[in-house]
Design brief:
Number of domains: 2
Strand content: 15-25%
Radius of gyration: 30 Å
Oligomer: single chain
Order of helices and strands: HHHEHEEEEEEEHEHEHHHHHH
Length: 380
């Protein structure tokens, strides 16, 4: 390699000063840790925000235009279901009810729950059962409970557990699991659509969403246009998830707070690493001057400084990612409600920030080194 010799010298200069090298690593590691932690929490919140969409799994969601999130449904009239079923390109369509209720447990305590009412005929969107039989959902007062992080709030019910919901008797006939836990911190119950609207007080309109399946992907655009003529909106699963993401990012304080903490983490890492790297350059000016005196070109010194900054930044990045991964693993094993998760986009964001820190630190060092005159060094 053309510059292997000068890079080897730079590496030895860097690691031999253990104090400065450790300070650089700690600064970048801490910055990466904070940036990753903040963005991982945001990713976990968003993943739970559209958990209903993920768990139900419908291809097309038809809703009121004012809906922002899956849990803030606006009731729609029954005729819309018949209208959607008669549209060109629709393979089938079913109603979905999502609402909140208050249940009274055996102990006499009350607990808020989220109730999902599935189409009586198809039970489309039903969760996978851990215990019980899906046919039991048609029994009197039957409900299925989701075994997730909020399960214990219902006092760990079993098959046959009885509770009271809005002065109606309810019986647990199945314990289910879902792909993603919810965000609102309340347990989830599944039942049939007819039972849900009977047990939970609603307006004269009862359908929260119409779930549809297109005959082909080419038919989706036509379905959207037909639904729009009725004054409603049809969104694919991906579009609905994106709408929910935009709501939490731009219309709540969550996105702003996470962004602010990420910027602060970047500034902390930049200030620590930039100052330490600049001090390191100042303390080694004589060595850089000596390299110039024996024939090292300015370009070679620039490559050496870039290598030193990049090596430190990437090492700190690896340590920071490892540290935050360990913390999230420990937290999730001990705290079921902990929502943080590492995704490709927050890994890429942290890497981009680290590269920017390395670039700015390198620029500061390069300017100082390029101004060195060997004569001044030896004269001093």
């Amino acid at each position: 390699m053309k510059y292997s010799g000068i890079l080897r010298i730079g590496f030895k200069l860097l690691v031999n000063d253990k104090g400065k090298f450790s300070a650089l690593l700690i600064g970048i590691t801490f910055a990466v840790f904070l940036m990753m932690q903040m963005t991982a929490m945001f990713a976990g919140i968003l993943n739970r925000a559209f958990s209903t969409v993920t768990n139900i799994g419908a291809t097309i969601w038809i809703m009121d235009p004012a809906v922002n999130t899956a849990t803030s449904a606006i009731p729609m009239p029954d005729y819309l279901l018949d209208a959607v079923r008669s549209m060109d390109g629709v393979s089938y369509a079913v109603p979905l009810f999502i609402g909140g209720a208050l249940v009274k447990l055996d102990s006499g305590t009350y607990q808020s729950v989220s109730v999902v009412g599935l189409d009586d005929t198809s039970l489309f969107g039903r969760p996978e059962l851990e215990q019980g039989s899906i046919q039991d959902i048609y029994a009197d007062n039957a409900f299925m409970v989701v075994n997730d992080a909020e399960f214990s709030k219902l006092e760990n019910p079993k098959i046959g557990t009885v509770f009271e919901l809005n002065d109606h008797r309810g019986v647990i006939v199945g314990i289910a699991r879902v792909a993603s836990n919810g965000l609102n911190g309340v347990p989830t119950l599944y039942t049939t659509y007819s039972r849900a609207i009977e047990y939970i007080s609603t307006t004269r309109f009862t359908i929260s969403y119409v779930l549809a399946q297109a005959k082909s992907e080419a038919a989706v655009a036509g379905i959207k246009q037909q639904v729009a003529k009725l004054g409603y909106v049809a969104l694919t699963k991906g579009e609905f998830n994106k709408q929910i993401t935009n709501f939490y990012t731009y219309k709540t304080g969550i996105g702003t707070n996470i962004l602010l903490m990420t910027v602060i983490s970047f500034i902390v890492g930049l200030s620590i690493s930039g100052q330490t790297f600049y001090t390191f350059i100042l303390e080694n000016l004589e060595k850089f001057g000596a390299l110039k005196a024996i024939g090292a070109k300015g370009r070679e010194l620039v490559y050496m400084i870039l290598f030193m900054a990049t090596f430190t930044a990437l090492t700190g990045y690896g340590l920071g990612v490892g540290l935050v991964t360990l913390m999230i693993w420990i937290a999730r094993s001990r705290l079921p409600n902990y929502a943080a998760m590492i995704t490709f986009w927050n890994l890429e964001l942290a890497l981009g920030m680290v590269i920017l820190i390395a670039g700015i630190s390198s620029y500061v060092g390069v300017r100082k080194v390029l101004k060195i005159e060997p004569f001044d060094i030896f004269r001093g």
